[in-house]
Amino acid sequence: MSLFMTICTLPFKILAFPLNLMEFMGIYSLYKRVFPVMMYRVAKNYNQKMYERKKELFSNLSEFAGPDGTLRILEIGCGTGANFQFYPSGSKVICTDPNPHFQSYLQEAIDANDQLEFEKFVVSSAENLSAVSDNAVDVVVSTLVLCSVDDVKRVLEEAHRILRPGGALYFMEHVASDPASWTHFFQHVLQPLWYYFGDGCEVTRVTWKELEASKFSDLKLRHIEAPLMFMIRPHIVGYAVK
């Protein structure tokens, strides 16, 4: 990070200090009750703007159905269930999220997508999917999740473990912008505050490098500019095959 960027970041670190202190004292955890309310609205807006992108991304999901023709999907960080409408009819779905307060919104999405068979909702971090056996699912889905997990490498290892051979991890994630851009500059400057209001979200991650270094045998990855606010405009989309 350049000296100029470091100086510009300092005021936002100072503004974030009370939130940092609240997190240290355990008070910030109360925000997790409020966060699903905000994300319910954000997810609807995101789906409207990214509908065609999501439709294109998930268009070949059925190709990864198991030998019996059933598609078993596990979605990490499922949140409000914004992806369910894109899953093929008859799919069996397991949902995981570390925030149990999403469940009421998740139930609304489940009721609206009765073409799917929902097996269970597991309150779990993406780094620890011990409730799911090895080689148990055909597809793992991650959208706007890898920006806020504690350990991206560990999440990818868990996704690889629970996928059957030939299964795929689908992803749509916002990432760091080109280092030469003003977006990259402001992503780093505003990150200290963004982290707290986004419940741990980091806009400065180069997630594609983690995917490239993972155990997956075949990676289909594209960089796109999403029709969103500048901080989260740079995205990667695609899938990785085990």
Describe this structure in words.
- It contains six helices and seven strands, in the order ααββαββαβααββ.
- It has helices at residues 3-25, 31-57, 103-112, 152-162, 182-197, 207-212, and strands at 72-76, 92-97, 117-123, 137-143, 163-174, 218-225, 234-241.
- A seven-stranded mixed β-sheet has the order 3-2-1-4-5-7-6.
- Helix 1 (3-25) packs parallel to helix 5 (182-197).
- The longest helix is centred in the first third of the chain and has 27 residues, at 31-57.
- The mean pLDDT is 92.
Please outline what is shown here.
This protein is an alpha/beta fold.
The description of the largest β-sheet is: 7 strands, mixed
Low-confidence region ranges: none
User: How far from one another are the termini?
Assistant: 35 Å
> Tally the helices: what do you get?
6
**Multimeric organization:** single chain
- Strand order within the widest sheet? 3-2-1-4-5-7-6
Please give the number of β-strands.
Answer: 7
Percent of residues in beta strands?
15-25%
Q: Mean pLDDT, as a whole number? A: 92
Encode the helix/strand succession as letters: HHEEHEEHEHHEE
Helix share bin? 25-40%
State the shape. Answer: globular
Structural class: alpha/beta
- Cα Rg: 18 Å
How are the SSEs ordered, and which strands pair?
Elements: H1 3-25, H2 31-57, E1 72-76, E2 92-97, H3 103-112, E3 117-123, E4 137-143, H4 152-162, E5 163-174, H5 182-197, H6 207-212, E6 218-225, E7 234-241
Parallel strand pairs: 1-2, 1-4, 2-3, 4-5
Antiparallel strand pairs: 5-7, 6-7
